[in-house]
Design a protein that fits this description.
9-stranded mixed β-sheet
Length: 541
Amino acid sequence: MRPRVPALVAVLALTVSGCASLTTSATEVGEVRMRDDRSVRDGGILTVALKSDPDKLDPSLGSTLVGRTVFASMCQKLYDTDAKNRIKPQLAAGMPEVSDDGRTVVIPVRRGVRFSDGTTMDADAVRTSLLRHRDLPASARASELKPVKSVDTLSGNRVRLRLKEPYEPLLGALADRSGMVMSPRALKKYGEDFAAHPSCVGPFRFAERVTGDRIVLEKDPHYYGADDVHLDKVVYRTIIDGNVRLANLRSGDAQVSDQTAPLEVQSALTDDKLQLFNSPTLGYQGLTVNIGNSRGLGKPPGKVDSALARDKRIREAFALSLDRKLINEIVFQGMYDTACGPVAPSSEFGSKVRCPGRDLKRAKQLLREAGAKGRVPVELTISNTVEDMRLGQVVQAMAKDAGFDVRLRPTEFTTLLEHADKGDFEAVSVGWSGRLDPAGNVDAFAGTLGSENRSGLSDKGIDRLIEDGRRTAAPEKRKKIYRDLTGAINDEYGLIYLYRQRNYVVTTKEVAGLRVYGDGLVRVENAGYTGGQDGKKASAR
């Protein structure tokens, strides 16, 4: 592991006004600007409308993008990324010192920092969180920290990690949830119920949650940078309908709309009272097919009784029935990018992979070879948002042409993840927001017993390549490894990559100081109002 990150080309565009056609490209939405530095006044409440309800507010267990957006305001990490996707210290006092051929990593811990419960953050607290991320049953961070053999504290408020082997993805993991530090006192006091009483270090602290409706954070007076925090509160409201999110911005009931869908983006571009941020994504969206998840995440793969699980030829036929370009045009107005692999082409380790086109003739032939009789039944679990329902209906129609009978199972997103984790699905529409290091997009999802491996995929060749990717430092060699990994994963058809979103965030014009980087998170630490509106209407709900 070295203190370096992939050279991602990140573009953040801010559109002040204008009208866009249905063929407007993502890079044509306006003036390219990385940040909004207008001066803001102190006070006010900012309401952020989220596409779905966040899952558990526990950094060890969380696995949703909307959850990461909330964490960005209340749970800081050892390291963070900047506007150019470079890794920088956050709760660490400096970049790590690496020795012993990459097997020993020493991290200096920032001094003078307190958790939201008033207790001191120090090297012991960092050690407690790292071990919890690694060892907690059902931890979604376990795969990321599996190579960590031991964690010790050293003099000078430092933490030493001893690794089983050189591990290139470590720094990237510590710049995400694996690097979030939780209050040891809160962990001890609340135990398994920590998610209902989260305590970390951040500009805001947890105040209230009404599941399915809102999460309320208030300014944390213990925060080391409290003097630069302008807002009194941030309210995250769950509004799954994109049209309703946009309507809330126009009425003043909300000031920020996260993960805005292309149709709503087109509408926002015509409104001179709104502004649009857009950034490319490091992640992907697609379909996960259950081929071995019979006992739940973290359990050895077993037999799954479905046509897709029984025969790889049927999975391949299903994949060949889909037209990625047409899906992008019909569902997303051509404003996303097609995808057929886990690593973004803009990443230093990404490769431009030619996505296979739709091939109904080959799909039907594969079904005949597999002995399929009549239409092959498939249950597709999808989120119950308007956009995801459109995606499901398009997949349903396309697959029908090849000989599949797709039944849609609309499900609230957090519940969808719970079903997927348990293995209660045949195929599910789910994606990943992406990480700077490609291992963050691959290892947990495709490695045997990976903490996010909902498909139950288990392949010795894939596991060997994953290990090679972790150990290899040379960029060109790593790039080839991840190119080979992409081919090996695609050949199993347990993960069918379809498209890459762009991160569209719409705000009212009075909001300033907002940050939206390549990781897609909405950063509100320095956000506030330029004057006039202060969110009071939203807070009165």
